Structures are given as C-alpha cells and as structure tokens.
Amino acid sequence: MHYSNKTMNSNNLTPGKHVVVTDFDGGEGILVDLNTKKYFQLNETAMVVWKGLEQGKNVGEIADDIVDRYEVALDNATRSVERILDNFQTYKLLTAK
Fold this sequence. Notes:
The chain is an alpha+beta fold. It is built from four helices and five strands. It has helices at 5-10, 44-54, 59-70, 74-90, and strands spanning 13-15, 19-23, 29-33, 38-42, 94-96. The strands form two sheets. The protein has a three-stranded antiparallel sheet. Strands 1-5 form a two-stranded antiparallel ribbon. Helix 2 packs across helix 3 (59-70) and helix 3 packs across helix 4 (74-90). The longest helix is centred in the last third of the chain and has 17 residues, at 74-90.
C-alpha cells in the first residue's frame, strides 16, 4: 500500500486535550474545541475515526473498522478516513503524540 506523507503522519496524531466529545444514540456526536469555543457535528463515520484515534489506531485500522461496520470497499473507507483526518487537522482538533 502506498500512503502519502500526510497520511503516514496521521499515525502520530491523537485527539487534542482541548477537545471534548459527546456521543449520541445512533453513532453521531459533537466535538467541542474548548480553545475556540467552536463545536463540530460528526456523522457516524467521523465518530468511528475519532474513536479510533482515541484508541491509538492508525489509518489502516480505522479503515478496517469502517469496512467491518458499513460493508464498504477498503479503498473507499481509507479515502474517507484520510478526508476526515484532513478536516480534523484543518480545525486543529488533533495533536501530535
């Protein structure tokens, strides 16, 4: 498998201590950035990614979780994880381990 440098770096990312997460029934959730006072509504897939990061999983492991849960192709799941991680990074919700 070939991962871009950005994706490889995501293996060193973890949820920021300044971010609080709330789970809702049905798998969705909310992230609150205590530094900026902004909140972000997450769909089920984004919550799987966030929880995977909390557990110290890498991109491949999180993509496997999505494949198992939603029966999608691995390459689609991997692209989704990468896109979601990019969004988390854009909003500075992650920190380096």
